[in-house]
Design goal:
Blueprint lengths: L1 H4 L9 E8 L6 E2 L7 E3 L1 H13 L4 E7 L8 H4 L4 H12 L4 E6 L13 E4 L2 E4 L1 H18 L3 E4 L6 H11 L6 E8 L6 H7 L19 H13 L3 E5 L5 H11 L3 E4 L2 H12 L5 H14 L4 E3 L3 H6 L4
Parallel strand pairs: 1-3, 1-4, 1-12, 4-5, 5-8, 8-9, 9-10, 10-11, 11-12
Antiparallel strand pairs: 2-3, 6-7
Helix pairs in contact: 2-4, 4-5, 5-6, 8-9
Bound molecules: zinc ion.
The site of zinc ion has 5 residues, from loops.
Amino acid sequence: MRNLVRETKLSAHDFVLPLFVSEKIDKRRPIASMPGVFQFSLKEVVDEAQKARDSGLQAILLFGIPAKKDEKATGAYAEDGVVQKALRAIKKKCPVFVVITDVCLCEYMSHGHCGVTRVDGDHFHVLNDETVDLLVKTALSHAQAGTDMVAPSDMMDGRIGAIREALDTNGFEQTGIISYAAKFASVFYGPFRDVAESPPQFGDRRSYQMDCANADEALREVALDIEEGADIVMVKPALPYIDILWRVRERFGKPTAVYHVSGEYAMIKAAAEKGFLDERAAVLEIMTSLKRAGADIIITYWARELAESMPS
Ligand SMILES: [Zn+2]
């Protein structure tokens, strides 16, 4: 009877798998704080994308770790950058599989911030407009390498509109934008910075990520990104912000994604390792809750395991 009247059903099509490709390695490197998550070499990431597709998933979200970082994040928009190379290789093997690429500068900046910075004595500023110029360059180079959607994760003002305009004027009207519209400054990103090798070398990201106390501000940020041309809006992290997810889906009715982040993943893994929780049951309950709260797309490190165990 419960099966007959269940309102929320999960499918393999609900999930997107984040994949990390590193130019610095030849063999997969495990991430201590995220059991089961790896950095992959350029060669391996193609196999991982194929495995993801074969599991029934529709899409992956690709992050790059360059061999070198600098003050201008050159690697983010280089034609032979790590993401650009991985993209071309994946698209060659899996032409109809959706590849979404992360657009940010933090992995490519020597200081680890998401934008161009200026330091005045003890203070530092992230320069919004200079950063947007580099984000636009990065998004365009991803489009040229064959990305289906770019995912700007930086939270600078005006970047969605600028990226949309640049894509359109360069013949990439079909390239979509999934915007990290409501990205909160969160302790739950900790393990991700290990895997993406992007912890800020000074200061923190609170000047450009949102305060966890503010919900109305999140709705305003989402409204702006939609106005500027975002095709899909994202809320990040997931469970502590499930009210935001619900309000965004209800208010705007846009395709809405949620990112179940590294710290949320690590908590369940750690509890399961200690025998405090049944991992599989916990994961299914969380994913069902996120979908019930309005998520059309759930980005999760469990995506492949979930897809393998359910109908598509
Ligand atoms: Zn960033």
